[in-house]
Amino acid sequence: MKNISNKTASDKLIFALDADNYKDALSWVDILSGHVGMFKVGKELFTAVGPKIVKSIKERNQKVFLDLKFHDIPNTVASAAQAAVKLNVDMFNVHASGGSQMIKEAVSAAWACADKLGQARPILLAVTVLTSLNNADLTEIGFSKTTDEMVLHLAELAQNAGASGVVASAQDIALLREKFGDKFVIVTPGIRSAGATIKDDQKRTLSAYEAVKTGADYIVVGRPIRAAQEPLEACRKIVREIADGLAAR
User: Fold this and answer.
1) Helical (H) or strand (E) element with 115
2) Backbone phi, then psi, for 43, in 5-degree steps?
3) What separation in angstroms does the CA of 204 have from each of 14, 78, 189, 197, 230?
4) What CA–CA distance (Å, rounded) separates 8 from 10?
């Protein structure tokens, strides 16, 4: 059995800061700093608070995943990518369904901006199929492909366009690893702690242990920590699951 350090395991954990105000968001950052590897700032928080939340997290020497899923004409997304880099985020994403040209221009703009500023290039991810969607949902929208087929199609498009990796369901990890190897980053949301019985809008989930064992580079966890009676203990439990998953690879 491999010996996996707590730091190595916690670096794989991204906490979803799904707060609706600045004070609550920063309280979670203060509680979980040093226990998670990154904080995810999504649409709700960013719309309510704006860029200052990203700046405040970075001032605390913590990493930020800006989860705004840019999806627009290529020029607009390229400009948004530059703005994300100027905020010094460590990771951000676009929708793969925006097409290869959109992704290419976002990548080019982001890398050029980071290089000009002398910053590390952020991880640029493409979102494949949301974890709230299943085959029936794709049919309703008008897609003929299954979720598995769509995920592989969009992931290949994203890789060819220069993206660092993808955001994908835990149930897609094995397929993605088989097709794209170990260098393509996989970030997996919708993660639940082993034995959890939480019912919500996530449809294609796995436990932290299963996701990491299968090959996820990072996992995103929100409600299982935020809704726990003892959030820090819930966080530690998930970190232990990550360590076990890494050791079992």
Assistant:
1) helix 100-117
2) -60, -45
3) 18, 30, 10, 14, 26
4) 6
CATH topology of domain 6-247: TIM Barrel (3.20.20)
| The model's pTM | 0.93
CA torsion sign for 15, 147, 242, 235 is positive
Contact 157, 150 (CB under 8 A): no
What residues act catalytically?
A: 69
Closest by alpha carbon to 221, among 231, 230, 151? 231
Residues 185-242 pLDDT 10s? 999 998 876 555 444 444 445 799 999 999 999 999 999 999 999 999 999 999 999 9
For the chain, what are the domain ranges?
6-247
CA angle 58, 24, 54 (to 5 degrees): 20
